Amino acid sequence: MKIRLSLFVFLLLAVPMFAQQTGPGAPRLIVGLVVDQMRFDYLYKYQDHYGNDGFKRLMREGFNFKNTHYSYIPTYTAPGHASIYTGATPEVHGIVGNSWFDRRSGNVVSNVGDPSVKITGSVIENPNGYSPNRLLASTISDQLRLGTNMKSKVISISLKDRGAILPGGRTANAAYWYDWESSPGHWVSSTYYMEKLPSWVAKFNAQEQADKYLSETWNPLLPMSEYDESAPDDNPHETILRGKEAPTFPYNFEEMRKLYEGATNFYQVLWGTPFGNTITKDFALEALRNEGLGKDAYPDMLCVSFSAPDVVGHTFGPQSVEVQDTYLRLDRDIADLLSSLDREVGAGNYLLFLTSDHGAQPVVSWLHANKMQAGLAVLPQFKQDLSFKLGQRFGAFDWITYFGSEQIYLDRKLIAEKKFSLAEMQQAVADIMETQPGVRYAVTAQDLQQKIYTEGQLAKLQRGFHPDRSGDVMLVYEPGIYPTSDFRTPVSKVRGTSHGSGYAYDTQVPMLWFGKGVKRGDSSRKVHPRDIAPTLSFMLNLQMPDGTSGNPLKELLD
Fold first, then answer.
1. What is the pLDDT of residue 16?
2. Is 444 helix (H, G, I), strand (E, B) or coil?
3. Mean pLDDT over residues 231-245, rounded?
4. Domain presence at residue 348
5. Cα dihedral across residues 293, 138, 95, 495: positive or negative
6. What is the total count of domains within the chain?
7. CA-CA distance, 36 to 17, in Å (whole number)?
8. I need a labelling partner for 154 at 20 to 30 A (CA). Which of 17, 229, 235, 436 fits?
9. 77 an active-site residue?
């Protein structure tokens, strides 16, 4: 009888222990903020114009890792988000780009494309489906759900489908993104998560917030004379938007709407404005309140990706007033988010990190004008030259199935039919490509699978290589080289920029930690965004994501 009673008492006392599987004193909510295309230097370049309650509060009250770099190539949005939340690199999680050539189907596929599901909440039927089906590793959000027997709730939000889907992993309660094709101005999801949008999402969509923001005019937040950290508003390195004669403020969206003649893709304009960040923040706060995040004994997770800075950066470049103004306004959005978290969850009850999925290359025409190394890798010319030389050596056949900016895919079936060695063909391609101007390395898939590179660009290339998804030959360019499909525009006339390389302008990003259990300070130690997931695992006493290669950040755990 005493044994049975003791066992009963043990089980009774053990229930709250199991309910608190993530440990006593765990944060009630984990908030992951990813700012798309945010370079590390933006924290300091614009700090004189930031308020005290946004970026400055995170730096003042939190911990700042100043030497955070991605350790792989290519540095794009999808691989970045996947790496942050899996703690792995593309060689493990399999997200080798925003898209890649799929040898089985013979088509280019999206990183989150899934024909077995459909969009939930679209006004017009949308045949495109999206899910985390192509993600090959678990995320920290998955581990939180699994570790609490699915009691924790995970909600992930972004204007971009990939920015919402990948952070949530395979087990998220919901991922929401902004649909401008079939549901202008609406947030949608996928049948992977739900058959019908929750009433609070439908209610938010009914407010037509997109039309509200696109009825405004984007004027600079400050007097133009105060944007002295940026180039003049009218400069030759920025893209001129439709209907304008110069890349300058103001941007009147009502005037732009007339040029689209009612087309639904007009709503994509919102992505290239700071108001895209604001509507994302507004929707995230609605999710916080309506989903009751951080309100019970099980820690929840809210993943938010601010996508608008990426589109603004691509369009105008890092030197632009438009980019600076976007960050000044994002600073206000983050301040509002933090104050709302203080009210809704309680200051000290939540843990937040902020980072980015990649940086951005300076506009090559701006580099050229300032006597820095700059040049173009004209891909159509490269492909034409490669096809000609392969034809001379192996016969006049179409050996190339896909030629991307960093990857070349060969027709393996044709190579086998003609009884050539795939390794020999790969090496021939690599030898030809290394003679092209601006190409530093051309590396074969065979070398990336058989050799071990420990440092430099080749090691980064290897970490970004997945044998089933990557090309037969991978390219690395010299610093300052801009891959382009435009063979008519000289380097001095290029407008706007991109990213994807393994150089510091693309790899160095911010990493700020704030909230429960985070001491104030900073570090110059080199760390990686893939360190975020294992750090959260230690903080929450969770099993690490299965593909993790990152290391817990000791500065936060000591």
1. 39
2. strand
3. 95
4. yes
5. positive
6. 2
7. 39
8. 17
9. yes
How far apart (Å, rounded) are the C-alpha atoms in residues 347 and 256?
Answer: 42
**Distance, CA of 76 to CA of 97 (rounded, Å):** 6
Specify whether 357 is located in the same domain as 379.
no
Distances (CA, A) of 455 to 327, 452, 524, 533: 34, 10, 20, 23
Neighbours of 449 (CB within 10 A): 11
What confidence tens digit (pLDDT) does each residue in 489-522 have?
Answer: 999 999 999 999 999 999 999 999 999 999 999 9
Same domain, 300 and 440: no
Residues 6+ apart with CB under 8 A from 228: none
Residue 167: which of 317, 35, 305 has the closest Cα? 305
Instruction: Give buried/exposed letters for 284-304 (b at 16+ CB in 10 A, else e).
Output: bbbbbeebebbeeebbbbbbb
Q: Which of 328, 363, 310, 305 is CA-nearest to residue 218?
A: 328
State pLDDT tens for residues 257-290. Answer: 888 876 668 888 999 999 999 999 999 999 999 9
Same domain, 268 and 397: no
pLDDT(525) > 60:
yes
Alpha helices by DSSP H, listed for 87-152, are: 90-93, 140-147
Backbone phi and psi for residue 305, each to the nearest 5 degrees, phi listed first: -115, 125
Distance of CA 278 to the CA centre of its chain: 18
| Cα end-to-end distance, the chain, whole Å | 46
User: Is 56 in the same domain as 124?
Assistant: yes
Residues 161 and 207 placed together within one structural domain of the fold: yes
Q: What is the CATH number of the domain that holds 400?
A: 3.30.1360.150
Do you find a cis peptide bond into 274, omega within 30 degrees of 0? no
Total residues belonging to the chain = 558
CA 390 – CA 262 distance, rounded (Å) = 48
Q: How far apart are CA 240 and CA 58, in angstroms?
A: 35
Can you say whether residue 348 is alpha, beta or left, with left for phi > 0 and alpha for psi between -120 and 50 degrees? Answer: left
- Would you put residue 27 in left (φ > 0), alpha (ψ -120 to 50) or beta? beta
- Expressed in percent and rounded to 5, the helix, strand and coil fractions of the chain are 40, 15, 45
Computed over every residue of the chain, the mean pLDDT equals 94
Q: Which two tokens stand for residue 438?
A: 């601006």
- Tell me whether the omega of the peptide bond preceding residue 74 falls within 30 degrees of 0, making it cis: yes
Per residue in 526-544, pLDDT (tens digit) is 999 999 999 999 999 999 9
Name the catalytic one among 22, 68, 77, 355.
Answer: 77
Question: Which tokens belong to 338?
Answer: 């933090």
Residue type, 325: D
Structure-token pair, residue 362: 């300076």
Out of 462, 493, 524, pick the residue that ends a domain. 493
14 lies in some domain: no
